[in-house]
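Thread: Uracil-DNA glycosylase-like domain-containing protein, structure

OP (GT): Posting the sequence first so everyone is looking at the same thing. Length is 175 residues per the record. Can we get the structure tokens written out before standup tomorrow? I want them in the notebook alongside the other entries.
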Amino acid sequence: MHTAEIPDHLAEDMKLLFIGFNPSLRSGETGHHYANPHNRFWRLLHAAGLTERVHRPEEDGSLSGWYGYGFTNIVSRPTRTAAEITKEEYGEGRELLKQKLIMYKPRFACYVGKGVYEQFSGRKDVSWGLQPAGVVAQVQDYVVPSSSGLVRMSFEAVAAWYNELRQLLQTSDDA
């Protein structure tokens, strides 16, 4: 089994940049974001109305053109669990992620899991949803529950946070 870093999908004028901990081993094998069949990410996007249908991981690079969505991770090395990520990898990842946010300035940075945002922002006791102040100027930070199949929240409870994000995106589109 060969795992490798998977490519970021970044573009200027992104509406939304999804930021994960790091790729799963399955994503490392396939080269696509949220490729583990137990991950609920693609179903959550559709259930929340963020996409018109349930997309496949192989379509991750197309979502920028279709919806204005991008993908990256705080750490690029695929692992079985986020617990395998080292302090050094987080430190390096924080700096690289900040550079990406400064360069591309997505309207919203969506952190897929509280731990991702805590590692990036250095903040503790983070709540779900829109954060009071973004880490990078002109980028609004939004935190959703992880889409991992290991998360014990119901699909509906997780989808509600993605739905709120969709509503914020629509409001910002209308502004």
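GT: Both are above now. Quick notes for whoever picks this up: The mean pLDDT is 93. Residues 16-174 form a domain with the Uracil-DNA Glycosylase, subunit E fold (CATH 3.40.470.10).
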